[in-house]
Amino acid sequence: MSEGSPMPSEAEQEAFEQNPHLLYSALRAEAPVSKVTAPGGLGVWMVTRYEDARPALSSAKLSKNVEIGQKVIEQNTDNEEMRLMFATELSAHMLNSDPPVHTRLRKLVNKVFTPRAVERLRPRIEEVTTELLDAMERAGRVDLMSAFAAPLPIAVICELLGVPLIDQDRFRGWVDAQLSGDPERLAEAAPALLGYLDELVASKRANPSEDLLTDLVHASDGDDKLSAQELVSMAFLLLVAGHETTVNLIGNGVLALLRHPDQLAALRADRSLLPGAIEEFLRYEGPVNTASLRFTTEPVELGGVVIPANQLVVVAVASANRDESQFPDGDKLDITRETGGHLAFGHGIHYCVGAPLARLEAEIAFGRLLDRFPDIRLDVDDADVRWKPGTVLRALKTLPVRVSAE
């Protein structure tokens, strides 16, 4: 995986996807900032230690600008999926921007993405959670990912954006395509989703309603407002980032508990531990493996290593969150530990704007799940639990569970 190494074999890639922590541990010890060969032959600089990762996430010397990203990616790869990530109008959002553009966009979004706006979603989150748990109880045996972890966040995102109920099934289909990693599906779905979001923004402007997208349409800072294009790309960012983060937080967290019955028992016995447990799930096996791409516009020194200009940089937050210099016994799940400073939601100006919503959804989802199903357990051998391919997200393929006492 070092510079000049061949593209990883299928077996090596499979091993990394199923347990990236072995490689991360070795890299932290031997080459904490190093150039590695990712699937598809793409060369990226990977940052694995906490002491380097945290400043890298907030460094002004590492650009997030979408136009810079397009150029750097074109210089470094002919991978079609990578090119598509930055070639669509949907990608021109605040996560892919630098100050002063980012500062302006974030300021406008912060005006409406308030604690009050998040809290008003609580009744809907509770309602959907109850409906999904009812269906799980009737079934007795389910895939927790498809039965609970995935449908809850997408229902909340539809509520957040004010997507009409009649449109939600096709909306979910477009979202799934965006997250599939399939260039063909991505290319097909992107224009349809773009067109739909254009129409949705226009409808919110003409007919305001009680949702965050309407609030964004009318948000202003003096004479400044989000343009139509900015509104569409912002809606897309909230959609993708807000959905997938929470899906994986729920799935990974439930698996962590099922693999650690002592921690599950402790949480059942003392529900006041739940907020801290959620932070520990985020640290221990968070929803994001590597943070979104950054780009060097000039030579940048990290961890004593100089990364040249026009290079791609990834911060392995899953590695930093298990760095024992920051989190003693980092490979151990401990829902009572002090997790302050974990990087699951990023750090600095790009810290996840939807983090409070993800935490609220997780609080309700885990709390209600534990209340309803005291006998929940894996319905497959632990060794048969598989993770999805890819290096960005830490996501389960399925999580078969039994929720009945039988």
From TrEMBL:
<dbReference type="InterPro" id="IPR017972">
    <property type="entry name" value="Cyt_P450_CS"/>
</dbReference>
<dbReference type="InterPro" id="IPR002397">
    <property type="entry name" value="Cyt_P450_B"/>
</dbReference>
<protein>
    <submittedName>
        <fullName>Cytochrome P450</fullName>
    </submittedName>
</protein>
<dbReference type="GO" id="GO:0020037">
    <property type="term" value="F:heme binding"/>
</dbReference>
<comment type="similarity">
    <text>Belongs to the cytochrome P450 family.</text>
</comment>
<keyword id="KW-0560">Oxidoreductase</keyword>
<dbReference type="GO" id="GO:0005506">
    <property type="term" value="F:iron ion binding"/>
</dbReference>
<keyword id="KW-0479">Metal-binding</keyword>
<keyword id="KW-0503">Monooxygenase</keyword>
<dbReference type="InterPro" id="IPR036396">
    <property type="entry name" value="Cyt_P450_sf"/>
</dbReference>
<dbReference type="Pfam" id="PF00067">
    <property type="entry name" value="p450"/>
</dbReference>
<dbReference type="InterPro" id="IPR001128">
    <property type="entry name" value="Cyt_P450"/>
</dbReference>
<keyword id="KW-0349">Heme</keyword>
<keyword id="KW-0408">Iron</keyword>
<dbReference type="GO" id="GO:0016705">
    <property type="term" value="F:oxidoreductase activity, acting on paired donors, with incorporation or reduction of molecular oxygen"/>
</dbReference>
<dbReference type="GO" id="GO:0004497">
    <property type="term" value="F:monooxygenase activity"/>
</dbReference>
